[in-house]
Write a structure and sequence with these properties.
By secondary structure, this protein is α+β, with helices and mostly antiparallel strands. The chain has two domains: about 1-50, no CATH class; about 60-240. It contains four helices and nine strands. Strands 1, 2, 3, 4, 5, 6, 7, 8 and 9 form a nine-stranded antiparallel sheet that branches. The longest helix is centred in the N-terminal third of the chain and has 22 residues, at about 20-40. The protein is extended.
């Protein structure tokens, strides 16, 4: 642990996993910093405001923040908590990580207009964009790493859009869809529900959210599902990043 000028404040056994030890080291580091500030007359500077941004490699007119989450399984399970029986018995180091199973990723698409219907009639979102979403975003990475789907793994995917309201110059667009994705070892069979608020004057979305919910099964090498193969419900959200 270092101060803003590079001075060591606390460094012994910095890689320990015991949370109590880490907390104690942080407190010692803060005390050390307060002592150094007093001795050397350091003055704090204001932290400049910075807008949140997406990873630089994610590009396109539509950029979605993607969140994946395990969902409750059956009556009485209201927590969404995911701890395997072995983890409960052993209280191993993964327990805190998997206690509230959730993850985040990103996907960028080239065109806004692919998600804007041209009339009040139902239209289909382009297969190009849907297959990109499926390949990159519809993954079981709740607990750990999962490689992108291959093109041949996407058995089918569809998303129907319909303009359901226009008010104060803003269009409300409804989305419904289905996907069937499988590589023979793992699969995801979600249904999609979504809504977007589109401004035709600026040709931009004020908001756009897609929620994919359905059973996942199987496991990848590093996604921590080897003892939790399912089928089990999982949700994935795509929310427009403005």
């Amino acid at each position: 642990m270092m101060g803003p000028n590079g001075e060591y404040l606390e460094a012994k056994f910095a890689a320990a996993v015991n949370s109590a030890d880490i907390l104690a080291r942080m407190k010692r580091a803060l005390n050390r910093w307060e002592t150094l500030k007093s001795e050397r007359g350091y003055q704090g500077l204001p932290i400049p405001p910075a807008k949140p941004t997406h990873p630089p490699e994610i590009t396109g007119q539509l950029i979605f923040r993607v969140n994946s989450r395990d969902l409750p399984r059956g009556n009485g399970d209201q927590s969404g908590r995911r701890i395997t029986a072995e983890e409960q018995r052993n209280n191993n180091v993964w327990s805190d990580f998997t206690k509230w199973a959730w993850n985040e990723s990103w996907v960028g698409l080239p065109s806004i207009q692919s998600f804007v219907p041209k009339s009040n009639q139902a239209e289909e979102v382009s297969q190009r964009d849907l297959r990109s979403i499926a390949r990159i975003a519809l993954l079981d990475n709740v607990r750990g790493q999962n490689p992108e789907w291959r093109e041949q793994d996407i058995k089918s995917i569809s998303l129907t859009m319909r303009r359901i309201n226009t008010k104060n110059g803003l269009q409300t667009i409804q989305y419904t869809g289905l996907a069937n994705i499988s590589d023979g070892r793992k699969s995801y069979l979600p249904t999609c529900y979504g809504e977007g608020i589109y401004n035709p004057e600026t040709q931009r979305f004020n908001s756009l959210d897609l929620v994919w919910i359905g059973p996942r099964s199987g496991s990848a090498q590093f996604n921590q599902r080897d003892k939790d193969q399912g089928p089990a419900p999982m949700g994935i959200t795509l929310s427009l990043f403005n």
